[in-house]
Design a protein that fits this description.
With 494 residues, the chain is of the alpha/beta class. The chain is 45% helix and 11% strand. The chain is built from 19 helices and 14 strands. It has helices at 21-35, 39-52, 57-69, 73-86, 91-103, 107-120, 125-151, 156-159, 184-195, 202-216, 243-253, 275-288, 303-309, 311-318, 321-333, 359-363, 376-382, 404-413, 488-493; strands at 222-225, 232-236, 262-264, 293-295, 337-340, 344-347, 384-385, 391-393, 400-402, 418-421, 430-433, 438-441, 455-461, 468-472.
């Protein structure tokens, strides 16, 4: 493949280049690791190649793609920029930069790169298609923002008053709400129905969304949880649409109940192709046990992420665009974090770019919106820990990275024992960092059917709050690949 060929292989690593023989050897080793999905090792070898030949655009572009596969979008963008700078006519560099911008929801910047490629290659149908698809996304977002402004304060029940008129077909054999309420019987039937790959009737789905919207809009941005001394409490991380792994958590740890409470810490949807099944199961348990089942917003409970990574496409395929709009409103009202017994703070992402942030500051966040690009709400959803002291720019391009000293100072300022967050794949499903004061839990095993990681959840008791970790492997699921409903443009780029 020549450096100028953007076509259908724009999402592959570059193989051929004849500059520095040793650098080429390193690139060859990196490519082998990349093709084995060993992205950490691939990045190490691409980095060694760059040290020997820092003007080679191919090395930067290949490393950019490896970072994209690891969801380190900030690093991917930096490498794509370096590729374009090293060789301004290297078309694949522009594709990498577009992919990084799209992954960050920066569609206007992505459009600029697509426009450049389309003008350079007017006869390339693939380049023209990507430019037009990106333009469509931008136009759709403009329309959706206008509609959202008009409806921001209305509840779903107010917006969709005609839902009571939806009839239930005679051949529907699935679970039914009793007196328009979720019951234990309904939840048991719903989970079995989903295991059989069947779909909850839209009338009941709409009703659940209206009810959970009504509940969440009354909740604070930081929810306080009380766990009695002898009671077990379970914290789960990302599940990302992996419904059958969610069912495995309940098999291992017991179904939610008043005596077996849970907190799911964001990123319920996207990537995995059973997101509908996951979210209605979680919302159902929230309505059934409102004081013993808790849900926090993750960075993927947002319009941009849902449009790119599959949830919006799945909702439209299984139900309707109307329901997709309803989910957007519900997600805007999800709490941002939880504090257990005044001693453990649980949020999806991490800590902050400023010192002395108090729990009261978090309680005061106005959350009924799409996640911003900076500030406390953004950092709660996007930030990551780092091993070195201090703060640094995010590898994701959003939020920050924070060190052990930042975590220690935050816990001391707020009289906390430790913080729990999710947001990152960990090989064992969890990680204790920052002298045990920053714990990551990730509950989607073999993430995207490719990462080979374990899943994990945390259990604590209300008396000492000492974390206990349970790990598990992925279970089989129906033959539907992850990202089956994702934006086709993103799939073409990555």
């Amino acid at each position: 493949m020549s450096q100028e060929d953007p076509g259908k292989d724009s999402n592959s690593i570059e193989i051929k280049d004849e500059k520095n023989p040793k650098a080429e050897e390193y690139k060859g080793k990196a490519n082998i690791h990349f093709n084995k999905k060993e992205y950490d090792k691939a990045i190490e070898w691409y980095t060694e190649a760059i040290k020997l030949d820092s003007d080679n655009a191919v090395y930067y572009a290949n490393r950019s793609l490896a970072h994209l596969r690891q969801e380190s979008y900030g690093y991917a963008l930096q490498d794509a920029i370096s590729a374009v700078k090293a060789d301004p006519i290297y078309i694949k560099g522009y594709y990498r930069r577009a992919a990084a911008h799209m992954s960050l929801g920066k569609f206007k910047q992505a459009l600029s790169d697509f426009e450049y490629v389309a003008k350079r290659r007017p006869q390339d149908k693939d380049a023209q298609m990507k430019f037009k698809e990106c333009q469509k996304i931008i136009n759709k977002q403009k329309f959706e923002r206008a509609i959202a402004t008009e409806k921001k304060e209305m509840s779903l029940a107010q917006m969709y008053r005609d839902l009571d008129g939806i009839s239930i077909e005679e051949d529907y054999t699935g679970p039914k709400l009793e007196n328009e309420k979720v019951t234990v019987k309904f939840m048991l039937e719903l989970m079995e129905f989903y295991k059989a790959e069947k779909k909850l009737h839209r009338k009941y789905a709409y009703k659940i969304l209206c009810d959970v919207d009504e509940y969440f809009r009354k909740q604070p941005s930081l929810v306080d949880i009380r766990v009695p001394p002898s009671q077990k409490f379970t914290i789960c991380g990302d599940i990302h649409g992996q419904f059958f792994d969610l069912m495995n958590i309940f098999k291992i740890n017991g179904l939610p109940s008043e005596s077996n409470p849970y907190l799911f810490n964001g990123d319920f949807v996207d990537r995995g192709s059973f997101s509908i099944e996951c979210i209605f199961t979680l919302f159902g348990f929230k309505l059934l046990y409102p004081d013993h089942f808790f849900l926090a917003r993750g960075n993927h409970e947002s319009v941009t992420m849902n449009q790119m990574y599959g949830f919006t496409g799945e909702v439209v395929a299984k139900y309707s665009s109307t329901m997709s709009d309803m989910f957007t409103q519900v997600y805007n009202w999800l709490p941002l974090c939880h504090c257990i017994n005044d001693r453990v703070l649980v949020m999806h992402g991490g800590l902050f770019s400023q010192d002395n942030v108090s729990l009261d500051d978090l309680r005061k966040i106005e959350r009924n919106r799409q996640p911003p690009d900076e500030g406390l709400m953004c950092e709660l959803l996007w930030s990551d820990p780092q091993p070195q002291m201090g703060r640094g720019p995010s590898k994701r391009g959003v939020g920050i990275q924070f060190g052990p000293d930042v975590t220690e100072a935050f816990c001391q300022f707020n009289n906390l024992d430790y913080v729990v967050r999710s947001h990152e794949v960990k090989h064992l499903g969890y990680e204790e960092a920052h002298n045990g004061k920053c714990i990551t839990v990730f509950s989607a095993p073999n993430y995207c059917d490719t990462m080979g990681n374990m899943g994990a959840f945390i259990t604590i008791k209300g008396d000492d709050l000492k974390p206990k970790f349970t790990t598990y492997e992925a279970v089989p699921h129906p033959n539907v690949k992850p990202m089956a409903y994702a934006n086709s443009l993103l799939n073409l780029l990555m």
